[in-house]
Design a protein that fits this description.
Strand content: 25-35%
Strand order of the largest sheet: 3-2-1-4-8-9-12
Number of domains: 1
Number of helices: 7
CATH class: Alpha Beta
Shape: globular
Distance between the termini: 38 Å
Length: about 230
């Protein structure tokens, strides 16, 4: 019953339709910090602009949507609570803006509220014996061991919603196509997460050694001259 409730909530919040696809491309987008948490931190302040991760995701979604074959479904997964709390802080309806962006892109938008819902979608959102994941990209806060969906949004400089490397074992190891391409665009993922990803799924994931910069309104770039992408 609990699994059904989680999946039902996920689909009600999203706009997924399920035509006869055989492959799926997934873009996962984490949430912004609250200005209340970050105010006064100067140059190290996070997420002055609330849609940094969204803008980068949109750039990538446009690219993969244009390249997708008829049997490939493009799905955008977004951590809803962080955008809801930022909406409340700013007095704007960011959720509606996200829905509009997804509609303009022509992609399936699914909001998730916690890590359990995300993992359940990976495993059972579609019949993974028939619909394999052909690509996966993550845009959001991260450290070497976690995708951090609500960094500095619930607790200052901390996160209570994340996908830790130890959570990977809860995701079925056979959900990816053999030629799947995966990348984390967040900070530090290439320092540990990529290795754990490859060990579990037998699929490489490109990640950054060092920090990445989302402040340009485009795809993130490496922050430091000694940074690099690694898998």
């Amino acid at each position: 019953m609990r699994l059904f409730t989680l999946l039902f909530s996920l689909f009600v919040l999203g706009t997924l339709t399920a035509p006869a696809q055989s492959r799926e491309k997934i873009v996962l987008t984490g949430g912004p910090a609250l200005r209340f948490m970050e105010h006064g931190k100067g140059e190290v302040s996070h997420d002055v602009y609330w849609f940094n991760f969204v803008d980068a995701s949109v750039v990538w979604l446009k690219k993969i949507k244009s390249e997708s074959k008829p049997d490939e479904l493009v799905t955008w997964l977004i951590y809803r609570p962080a955008y809801q709390s930022r909406s409340n802080e700013m007095g704007l309806n960011l959720i509606a803006q996200l829905q509009d962006k997804a509609k303009q892109l022509g992609v399936n938008l699914l909001f998730f509220d916690n890590t359990d819902q995300l993992i359940n979608y990976f495993n059972r959102g579609l019949d993974r014996s028939k619909v394999k994941i052909a690509s996966f990209d993550y845009f959001g806060h991260s450290n070497k061991a976690c995708f951090l969906f609500d960094y500095s949004n619930t607790i200052d400089t901390m996160s209570i919603a994340f996908l830790h490397v130890n959570d990977l074992k809860r995701i079925h190891s056979n959900i990816f196509a053999s030629d799947a391409v995966c990348k984390s665009w967040g900070c530090h993922s290439g320092e540990l997460y990529s290795k754990q990803w490859k060990d579990h799924f037998d699929i490489a994931m490109i990640g950054a050694i060092g920090k990445t910069d989302f402040s340009h309104g485009a795809l993130p770039v490496l922050s430091n001259s000694d940074g690099k992408w690694s898998q």
